[in-house]
Write a structure and sequence with these properties.
The structure is a homotetramer of 329-residue chains.
Chain A: E1 2-7, H1 11-22, E2 26-32, H2 36-45, E3 49-50, H3 53-58, E4 62-67, H4 71-83, E5 87-90, H5 98-111, E6 115-117, H6 125-135, E7 142-150, H7 157-161, H8 166-169, H9 172-182, E8 186-194, H10 199-203, E9 209-216, E10 221-227, E11 235-242, E12 245-249, E13 257-260, E14 265-267, H11 274-277, H12 279-295, H13 303-322, E15 326-327
Parallel strand pairs in A: 1-2, 1-4, 2-3, 4-5, 5-6, 7-10
Antiparallel strand pairs in A: 7-11, 8-9, 8-15, 9-10, 11-12, 13-14
Amino acid sequence: MIDAAVIGAGRIGKIHAANVAGEDGIRLKYVADVHEPGARALAEAHGAQVADVEGILGDPAIQAIVIASSTDTHAPLIEQAARAGKHIFCEKPVDLDLVRARACADTVTSAGVTCMIGFQRRFDPTFAGLQARLAAGEIGTPEMLVVTSRDPGAPPLDYLRRSGGIFRDMLIHDFDICRWILGDEAHSVYATGSCLSDPSIADAGDIDSTAVTIRTREGRLCVINTARRAAYGYDQRFEVLGSRGMLQAGNVRPTEVTAFSAHTVSTDLPEAFFLERYRDAYAAEIAHFVAALVNGTPVRTTIDDGLKALELADAASRSFVSGAPVTLE
Amino acid sequence: MIDAAVIGAGRIGKIHAANVAGEDGIRLKYVADVHEPGARALAEAHGAQVADVEGILGDPAIQAIVIASSTDTHAPLIEQAARAGKHIFCEKPVDLDLVRARACADTVTSAGVTCMIGFQRRFDPTFAGLQARLAAGEIGTPEMLVVTSRDPGAPPLDYLRRSGGIFRDMLIHDFDICRWILGDEAHSVYATGSCLSDPSIADAGDIDSTAVTIRTREGRLCVINTARRAAYGYDQRFEVLGSRGMLQAGNVRPTEVTAFSAHTVSTDLPEAFFLERYRDAYAAEIAHFVAALVNGTPVRTTIDDGLKALELADAASRSFVSGAPVTLE
Amino acid sequence: MIDAAVIGAGRIGKIHAANVAGEDGIRLKYVADVHEPGARALAEAHGAQVADVEGILGDPAIQAIVIASSTDTHAPLIEQAARAGKHIFCEKPVDLDLVRARACADTVTSAGVTCMIGFQRRFDPTFAGLQARLAAGEIGTPEMLVVTSRDPGAPPLDYLRRSGGIFRDMLIHDFDICRWILGDEAHSVYATGSCLSDPSIADAGDIDSTAVTIRTREGRLCVINTARRAAYGYDQRFEVLGSRGMLQAGNVRPTEVTAFSAHTVSTDLPEAFFLERYRDAYAAEIAHFVAALVNGTPVRTTIDDGLKALELADAASRSFVSGAPVTLE
Amino acid sequence: MIDAAVIGAGRIGKIHAANVAGEDGIRLKYVADVHEPGARALAEAHGAQVADVEGILGDPAIQAIVIASSTDTHAPLIEQAARAGKHIFCEKPVDLDLVRARACADTVTSAGVTCMIGFQRRFDPTFAGLQARLAAGEIGTPEMLVVTSRDPGAPPLDYLRRSGGIFRDMLIHDFDICRWILGDEAHSVYATGSCLSDPSIADAGDIDSTAVTIRTREGRLCVINTARRAAYGYDQRFEVLGSRGMLQAGNVRPTEVTAFSAHTVSTDLPEAFFLERYRDAYAAEIAHFVAALVNGTPVRTTIDDGLKALELADAASRSFVSGAPVTLE
């Protein structure tokens, strides 16, 4: 039985805590949060204790840390945990600064601990199912990937200002999808975008709509379109054209009810947002993390995957500013 | 906190035990099974104890019993539990014999306990979502219901011989759907059928394919078609025509992957069988049962619903044998 | 080049005239209608002449007659045309009276002419595509057929009163589908129904909603549900369960636009009514008729098919009145 | 009645000839083709005469010319026809050379004749239906357009070598869709691509897979992905995100049959290629051309639209070569 702690008792911390508590082979011992009542409530819900980071890292029984606190704490916590010899599950991103993130990865490597980054989309049943079929050769060699990734609405401006920009905050997941599905690294990135939904986003120095083109070393193409505001909800799809066919990953709906009125035939909107859409994926990634620790097998989304996605986000940001494609090394 | 026991540690008992264990407000204290090692394994998985029925009913802390043992034990266990003042959740059917089932219901009524029958389909997100929209008047008054209910394959002959026949064993769920969706009681039932997939089913005195027509007191029509063997899997759909439109409840798929090959465009088969298809429904019905006990509110699927569905199964069986429609009282 | 005449310049006569005019190998020479201006307008639109029935049948150049006049004229016109040695395409039904229809068929047989009945649904690309795949063995042996057949609204009462009742007027197409798809003749028919949409239909002696169950000689099952009024339009679907799978024939939509709003995801309603839904089928049946005449090959929907469908309609009508299933000889 | 001639009796000339022949208000008088037997066969099929271009343009009865000959003849024929005072329907493109195409447009303007370019996709029921709903404000202001445009296979190398390259030959339709749907002109174009399906395409100096990003003057975004070879056939879809929702235009299938086997649920592939997919669109564009001539109303796809699409193709070609985005004037 692995004793674990969750750091961060916010929206995503709650998800992880529940999944840790519900998973065989792992036990939730501690919850930490800078907001103590939040930590307390979450700990009580799962029969765990409240502790601070030092207490957690100082407990030799603790083998695994789940980091779900704010982005700026990720790198320091990863390093502290690694030095304390704890295995780490950390929400994306490692850090908004690539140099800092690389230093962090070096620390993890030196410490020899497992560090998994929470690219939960790879564990979504639909996305994972598609990837498995692609990997099995069902449509031959992948040639082109089209990713549609839209949120139901923009986050608060305060969040946006500290987010690192849309490419680092929102597209980092899509960059990971690109690498994972095309099985090839980016050669060049071109990014453009606009602020179309709300001028205050532009005032905050960001955009809300992007179009990104990635060309891989093998010449495969990936086009990503994103928007902060899709009036119909959370839109998470991709499709990959291969030499022998195509695989599409569609949205998931709450129910399979179809309604026929005098005017139209209609179905449900997609699942409302990431907590609903990726409910199963969040559980599956924790299960995968635990299985990796128990079996000593590698994790599927490493800190290196976190760095690679961040490199793409950086390149896209530079491309957007310069107006020209950026070639990666 | 409600202390509960699960009786029966088979396939469906395991589902209910896990849902009881995972639900707030209720605690799994005991598991019982005639096969002691099965009870033990299930109890241990959820930190519960093994007990026999007498021990469970004799423990004054126990407020609720979940009956998931074989069909022939349902009626005696319901009666024992009722007399012991325990609230009851029981898998369908109450009994294969209507007279016996009625006696059972009388005992429950005298005891004044809650008795919920596990018509889990009413708790399926798609079916429940449809019913809520129908009840809200979205398509006006219901006029016609078409139910398609097909299993991926027939159960073992040994099971079939003791099942009470296809109308009592398989269509009892569909009869409940009919009453629930049309909101009206049957006036007449006509049932016909055939044995088409496997002659040994006929040898066992049963059929594998049925077509049932129910006409309600208000003249609404329900047609149910069932098959023991659908080569493509578990098919659970219905559609209701109303005066202002139609609502369809479709199958649920494991993933939303669509594959385009040189020959076809394809999607997943429906969820494999009832354990997968109704996974959320099983959890929701236990949550509903607990909420009813906690809040003192009525349950949605009562022992009377169990009787009414059984009356329809009886009528359908008689219609099939006689070749003529049967009028209900 | 086959010279042909169309008798009847109403809605369906116009369709047939245009298809005859547009088909290679056949030429529209005459149009006849009891309403002379209607005949004139239609004739002029296609460069044809107006004639009366006697004139048409007396012209030795005429080889083929398309009968699209009112139902009560079908039998006499078929007989006159047959005796004149003309090949015949006649809209369904042959006659509302089975004895009269049989006499008519005898006359056709004696005359040795081709007589095709306009069961256009067999020529619909979707329905015909399904049947071809079924016949090729794609899903093994057919076991169960579920037919949904609903109109957008009831015809005028005046029409209803002379229609022969819903089983002869509306379900005759569905009875033909049953025979065609199951490839087996009916052993018994049970029909029930109600008047739910408009009491004046009941006053006119008819019903608007039916549920019909047919059991074939091989024990295959067919359930047909029909309604005169589906608020969402014209609903024409069927699905056949076979020993190795299922084939569904869905509705056809005017466009493939999908709209995502803040409330729903929606697509087009089905094609509005039979003229739109079966536009291609009407053209294909005329092409088939012409090809049969040119090549001396048999037609796919014979006058015998017309009789058989009428026998089923008669049996269903009797079953509805008696409340008991009717066994066919 | 408008007398018309079709120049070019190849695949697309046959389509136009049949549509001209079948349309009220216009009459096919002549067919011309450099391959005389082709012209003869097509003329005979529609009761027209064979003529050469001089004969056609010299006949004062001729009001309209449909140009369906090879691309290199478009510009000279447009100019000759314009100078002869004939109205013109010309297949895309006006010319592969933008300067030449502009000169051609000047000639048309001077002559004051109608010149419609055959961007038939604007007349496809699905695409046109979507655009009408967008124009009616159903989803607010358009913000992002995603176009998927894939052929079932590459044309012969000989064709490719004279095609002007994939951007001029294949994407010219997609560039027209972009302008039509976004209702805004391009500000910048970035194009990249690869040769992935067949190295001989690269040897011929072309590519087979492209990703193009257009940013309009209003900041709207359009991403186009194309491939010469989609193993599953002809894929023609687009979707537009607006401020209040999204509209998708899907592929069209030959039938609405869905097949359920032991392994999968499958539907038809999309219509095979452009002749099938745009069958209705080809008829509708000719009907629109005729209506414009008869009513003196403007055509929907002018020679200026042809120039604008060509400007985008030129810009995309330059962007691909230079590796940098191209700003339009």
